[in-house]
Structures are given as C-alpha cells and as structure tokens.
Amino acid sequence: MCLFCAYQKDNMIKVKKEGINVINKYKHTVHYYETDKMGIVHHSNYIRWMEEARVDFLNQIGWPFEKLESLGIVSPVLSVACDYKVATIFSETIAISVDVKEFKGVKLFLSYEMINGEGKVVCTGITSHAFLDKDGRPIRLKQEYPEFYQCLIGLVC
Questions:
Q1: Could you tell me if residue 100 is inside a domain?
Q2: What single-letter DSSP state applies at residue 33?
C-alpha cells in the first residue's frame, strides 16, 4: 500500500489511497527526576521516551503489546540510536512522532522525532526490532500473522 506522509502541527497524518489515518504524536512532560545536576534531562531518558512513544504508537494502530503478547509475539529491541540536538528541561512538554522507517518482514525499523514546545527538534532516534515467539524463535509475520504484517507494511514512509 502506497502512503504519503505529511506533518501537521499536532498530528502526523498518513494519507492512504482509500482514506486518512491520523496517528497522534505522543506527549511527554519532563519530570524533575529526569533532570541531572545541570538542570537538563539526562541523556538516558530519551531512550525511555522512545519506548513510551512506541507503546503508544502500537496502541494507536490497533496492535497493543497485550494483544501481541497474548498471540505469543515478543519484540525485543535489537538496536537504539539517538542524536541529541537541544537540551530539554523540567516541565517541558515534548511531542514525539513515530514512523515505520523500514519493514520487510524480519526486522522493523522505527524512527522518532522529538519536538519541544517552541517547535525545535530536540532529539531524533531509530530503533530496530525483531519478532520472536515465546521460545525466542523468529516469527514469519507474513505467514503467521498477515494482518499485523500488512498493518506494518502499510505504515512504511
């Protein structure tokens, strides 16, 4: 399925040939405990925020972790990369968009863009994931879970 991805101020819009799907950006408000002695967010927290946004993204596309796990699907993180652009501070609200960057059935690559209230990109990131059964063996999503496979393929930007 061919998708055209466009950004609006508060939402990421995925325009399909047959209609529009709106995937809301995940909003995170910086907590005091996430800051360090310098008063800025410690770098490790951005990885946590990517996980929060990923869980929210899966919920929005109709495939929450509870559903995946009930089907016997686990999805470990294989790699994480972050590029820090601008420091964030206590009480800022950060909007995080998640895009399916690449998916060919075996590995899923998600990209993240974090934007502060001033519209500045504060961090970008990429995570890669596999899909395994409960015994740790790779799952062929296309054959075993075609609806989930088609959902992910349809979201590639």
A1: yes
A2: G
Q: 112 versus 19: which is more confidently predicted?
A: 112
Tokens coding 63? 């495939």
Residue 53 sits in a domain of what CATH number?
Answer: 3.10.129.10
83 is catalytic: no
* pLDDT grade for 102, boundaries at 50, 70 and 90: very high
Domain span holding position 99: 26-154
CA 134 from centroid of its chain's CA atoms = 22
Which of 75, 96, 101, 98 has the alpha carbon at shortest distance from 153?
101
Distance CA(125)–CA(142), nearest Å, equals: 27
Given the residues 10, 36, 83, 133, the one annotated as active site: 36
Q: What pLDDT is recorded for position 17?
A: 39
